[in-house]
Amino acid sequence: MLRTKVLSLVARSGPSRLMSTATKLTTVEVNDKTGIATLTMCRAPVNGLNLELLKDLKTSIDEIESNKSRGLILTSSNATIFSAGLDIMEMYNPEKERIRAFWTQLQEVWLSLYGSSVPTAAAINGHSPAGGCLLATSCEYRVMLPKFTIGLNETQLGIVAPKWFMSSFLSVLPQRQAERALNQGRMFSTEEALQIGLIDETATSKEEAVEKCAAFLGTFARVNPLARALTKQQFRAADLQQLENERKDDLEKFLFFINQPAVQKGLGIYLEGLKKKAKK
Ligand SMILES: CC/C=C\C/C=C\C/C=C\CCC/C=C/C(=O)SCCNC(=O)CCNC(=O)[C@H](O)C(C)(C)COP(=O)(O)OP(=O)(O)OC[C@H]1O[C@@H](n2cnc3c(N)ncnc32)[C@H](O)[C@@H]1OP(=O)(O)O
């Protein structure tokens, strides 16, 4: 069977198996019964999206896509953090070539995840600021654990969420609420996120969150996969095409913006604050 050929197994436990692209920073486990792949981010300490994690995410998403899994659940191995967003160290005093590769890879991840033909869901088992929220809102369904926060807080750091971050957010929230939240750099508690519709459900444990995501993905079991995928892609085509058309400009805009002395100063102060808080 093609599926069996493509998936080279590195481990087997119960009805699940790990796919060959499993690396240190992401793992992919496919449930043999449901055909659903769970993609787990596991970069200590906070799943900061650096170049290497982004590369692993892209490879894993592509493999799930090409193996025609029945669904993709994105989650984290960290007990309290889904993803702390972009690794600020990639943007602070950046190295010229690396920051280009970093942003290009982030674009790649977004295009693959938001544009995935496979149905997607996020089991948000911890805090999910900025880039973490981008990943979650690129999925079609979100289940979140209580007492965490989610949102696009970029303005709080003195930076600006690019258009395509907004596209994902706007695929979930009405424009009025999205615009206000982005302008404020607002982080929502789980309860607030549920109320506003930024997440779809809550769960009391990661296992329950994954189960609820799987139940959502299961709603497509009797829908023709091609018809479903083409329908999803039509909804998202304009957003995806916009970034495809503007990728170079988007990169140059990012580099120009991030290299402004005032932006670098702001990032330095923010990092300092994070480190001070961590030491307490
Ligand atoms: C005109 C313009 C037009 C268009 C736009 C053009 C360009 C756009 C330009 C820029 C766009 C950039 C978009 C950016 C997106 C992002 O994702 S920025 C990142 C935002 N993330 C955050 O603000 C989260 C910050 N972190 C936290 O709030 C907390 O750490 C946490 C809630 C996630 C977890 O809290 P704790 O469990 O208490 O953990 P600690 O705070 O103690 O952290 C442990 C350790 O990790 C370090 N750290 C945390 N987050 C990050 C991070 N994002 N990057 C790097 N490092 C991080 C923290 O400093 C601690 O480090 P140590 O002190 O232990 O070394």
From TrEMBL:
Domain of life: Eukaryota
Pathways per UniProt: Lipid metabolism; fatty acid beta-oxidation
GO MF annotation terms: delta(3)-delta(2)-enoyl-CoA isomerase activity
Pfam families according to UniProt: ECH_1
Catalytic activity: (3Z)-octenoyl-CoA = (2E)-octenoyl-CoA; (2E)-tetradecenoyl-CoA = (3Z)-tetradecenoyl-CoA; (3Z)-decenoyl-CoA = (2E)-decenoyl-CoA; (3Z)-dodecenoyl-CoA = (2E)-dodecenoyl-CoA
Role according to the record: Key enzyme of fatty acid beta-oxidation. Able to isomerize both 3-cis (3Z) and 3-trans (3E) double bonds into the 2-trans (2E) form in a range of enoyl-CoA species, with a preference for (3Z)-enoyl-CoAs over (3E)-enoyl-CoAs. The catalytic efficiency of this enzyme is not affected by the fatty acyl chain length.
Subunit structure comment from the entry: Homotrimer.
Stated name of the protein: Enoyl-CoA delta isomerase 1, mitochondrial
Source organism (scientific name): Drosophila pseudoobscura pseudoobscura
Source taxonomy: Eukaryota, Metazoa, Ecdysozoa, Arthropoda, Hexapoda
Gene name tied to this protein: LOC4816920
